[in-house]
Amino acid sequence: MAVYTDVSPEQLEAFLSTYDLGRLRAFKGIAEGVENSNFLLQTEAGSFILTLYEKRVNPADLPFFIGLMQHLAARGIDCPQPVKNREGVALGTLAGRPALIATFLYGTSVRRPSVANCAALGTALAGLHRAGADFTASSRVNALSVPGWRPLYEQAKDRADTVAPGLSALIADELSVLEPAWPSGLPAGVIHADLFPDNVFFTGEELTGLIDFYFACNDLLAYDVAICLNAWCFEPDGAYNQTKGRALLAAYRTVRPLSDQEIAALPMLCRGAALRFLLTRLVDWLNVPPGALVRPHDPKEYLRKLRFHRSVTSPADYGVAS
Ligand SMILES: Nc1ncnc2c1ncn2[C@@H]1O[C@H](COP(=O)(O)OP(=O)(O)OP(=O)(O)O)[C@@H](O)[C@H]1O
Ligand SMILES: N[C@@H](CCO)C(=O)O
Q1: What is the top EC class of this enzyme, as a single word (predicted)?
Q2: Looking at residue 200, which CATH number applies to its domain?
Q3: Ligand 2 centroid vs 192 CA: distance in angstroms?
């Protein structure tokens, strides 16, 4: 569950009185998510999400995340729109935590994305990249790109083989391949960096919302595509579904063309994306606090994906032709 900080009705009423959202009708904690405390608020003005930012979010990054959501919402992207208080400020403090009220998005996330869902995601991802292109108010380095991987490996290497035999050596080998060969000079801009199915809402086949911008950063746009191929186009048995990959990539390219260089780099970018999630999951898996209520994500899922990418010989294997 993800309510780490309790909020009393009195605290919330006092906080809400600084906004033009009317009186509080109801509020409840939201179980999903692992990073921050989230509450669903019902006020006289409608439904909203209240987020209290917990320890893993650096307060210095909040103006970037909030400014980005404001920028994207103003450009028609279906993302949470930060609500400003009567003084025109979106970020507040509640129960000793940085706090944000944002608009509620309708729809539900899909557990097993269909080909149509993958296509809709490709369109939305390219739309996000285009809408973010002129977000220059602030920037944020991707702490989980190549320079961030080796420190994660150092934390996990001694115990990695308890998760899968040979894992430590395999990661060391990956790092030695990816660090010197990581693409540079490809189109860059604002990326979501964590656009997994649980962060995308659908109503029927229509994509109605993108949430959880708390890994967003400035990086290669095609790296975001690689993250999505990993998160959306594998089957539960570990097989890559080329039909889904083709649908995602083709839809993306109708909104934002991919250059020949970006296509050529896809196998490397997909490997890197798989390694990034393998590493963060591995570190979390090996460091579950005693009595934790949140179950960590399975690192082996990303080990299987990484093994697939190591076997890829051409971008065509992902369902794209240059
Ligand atoms: N704007 C929104 N509209 C509707 N529901 C939302 C919104 N924002 C968050 N939620 C709900 O809250 C849940 C948790 O949100 P979110 O994924 O941002 O949390 P988190 O703690 O950052 O989690 P994680 O990083 O593990 O995905 C979502 O699964 C969704 O159910
Ligand atoms: N999407 C990440 C979790 C961070 O939100 C994962 O599945 O490993």
Answers
A1: transferase
A2: 3.90.1200.10
A3: 12
SS in 3 state form for 108-151?
ECCCCCCHHHHHHHHHHHHHHHHHHCCCCCCCCECCCCHHHHHH
DSSP letter assigned to residue 66: H
- Please check whether residue 145 lies inside any domain of the structure: yes
Asked if 119 and 250 sit in the same domain, the reply is yes
Q: Which residue's CA is the closest to the ligand 1 atom numbered 29?
A: 32
Q: Is the CB of 4 under 6 A from ligand 2?
A: no
Mean pLDDT, the chain cut into blocks of 10 residues (322 residues total): 81 95 93 86 97 92 97 97 96 95 97 98 98 95 96 98 98 98 97 98 96 97 98 96 98 98 97 98 89 82 98 95 60
Ligand lying closest to the C-alpha of residue 35: 1
Query: Which of 81, 103, 125 represents a domain boundary (last residue)?
Result: 103
Cα–Cα nearest to 308, from 260, 266, 253? 266
